[in-house]
Amino acid sequence: MILKYKFGISITVMVLIVVAGVSLFLVISERTILNKIIKDKEASRIELAKNLVHVCRESIIGNDQLLIINQVKNIRKNNREIVHIIYVDRDGKILAHTEPKMIGDFDNKLAEIKIDEGSYLGATHPEIENVWDIFLPVMIGGERTGTTGIRFSQVGLNRLIENTKQQTYTRIAGISGVSLLLGLFGSVILAGMMSNPIKKLSKGAASIGDGNLDTVIDIRSRDELGKLAGEFNSMAKKLKELDTMKDAFVSNITHDLKSPLGAMKGYVDFLLKGRMGNINDKQKDALIRVSENAERLGNFIGDILDYAKIKSGSIDIVREKTDVSEIIRETVRLIEPLADNKSIILKAKVPDGAEEIFGDKKSLERVLHNLISNSIKFTPEKGRITVSLEDKRKELIISVSDTGVGVPPEDIGSIFDRFHQVQEHVKMVKTRGTGLGLAIVKGIVEAHDGKVWVESKINKGSTFFFSLPKGSLPAELKDKV
Ligand SMILES: Nc1ncnc2c1ncn2[C@@H]1O[C@H](COP(=O)(O)OP(=O)(O)O)[C@@H](O)[C@H]1O
Ligand SMILES: [Mg+2]
Q1: Probe target for ligand 1 pocket from 438, 440, 441, 445, with the most ligand atoms within 8 Å of CB
Q2: pLDDT, tens only, 212-232
């Protein structure tokens, strides 16, 4: 899973946990408040019931039934939530009631309810919704002389509870929704903030790893990632300095090797020609070997020097009006004997009258020579090689197509890199090349603002292409034509 998603998911999970925690906290605190409201209500109702008992006792002691009847009326009048009030004597005879017509009737059940002295009985009625009864004994001299009952309506209280609950849930849903949204939004931004520099870093590191030592990783934050990017940049800079030093060193050494090698080859050729006295056949064979190897070494040195020039940008491209068809025909003619040695048919397929371009003849010959000799090298005997030219509107496209061993797909991307040789091919050829040929081809073509590419099928053959834009003549050359 990529870092961005990992960050995003963990932050979202964290937000979810926090939101769930806050919601739980709100539910619990709201429930505590509700419980307190209910308890308070109960307490005040019990207080009311106790007062009633007190008056009942007074009315019994004073033998004044009217006192309790009036008190019942009063209490009822002042408390809208009371459904009814009842007071019975020990035989269950109703002595006072909010419904006057009930007075004188009997309610035996109420008389028989068990309640201890000093306590009360609170009861709900499943068969009558939304009511709460409270019963208290009326005690005189340690004896229960009667019982009071008050029935409260629960409608108001229930509504209050329901409303409070509703409000709480709405509030929780609102808070959760908003914080969830904010959290998600934040997590997306945070995930991006965290993962983008890392993505940049890994991209930059990969680019440096690919040899692009000019890469600069652009992370300006002052945190650890910014520091790491800085380290990478200075590492790339140092590598670049080392690389330049190394190139200069190689170039100097090869340059210094060139003249003594030239002298050695000169002397050997001199000997071979018999200018320094007769030599026998054995000596001649040995000298030929020396000459061939000196030639190979010379080519190698030449390639390294050319590549160094291309890399440092100091390759001399002398642009002049150039007939590419002519270069193709000429190079094919020169290289034909090499193809003949392997009974390979080498053909040039160039249209008449292709447009001339401004290019460097010598370099373009070199490009074709490299490509065709590669094809000869990697094509088995009796194969076929075709060099073609296509005159497009804005460019010429030149291709060298062979029926050779082909380039494995995994090598296609790096075949034009210096020193890159296909492993399977190395064992195949008699004399190993330098692996610089295609890099030089690419350098020269790119110095002409063109492109190189290859299409290949294993054991079927390869086609190497390069394009040469027709373009307009560079300003500095205009007056020379
Ligand atoms: N026509 C071709 N067919 C198959 N493989 C090729 C062909 N041309 C080049 N290659 C592969 O590309 C590698 C690099 O080529 P090049 O840079 O010219 O180096 P060299 O010829 O010195 O090995 C070769 O070693 C070979 O593996
Ligand atoms: Mg080559």
Answers
A1: 438
A2: 888 888 888 888 888 988 998
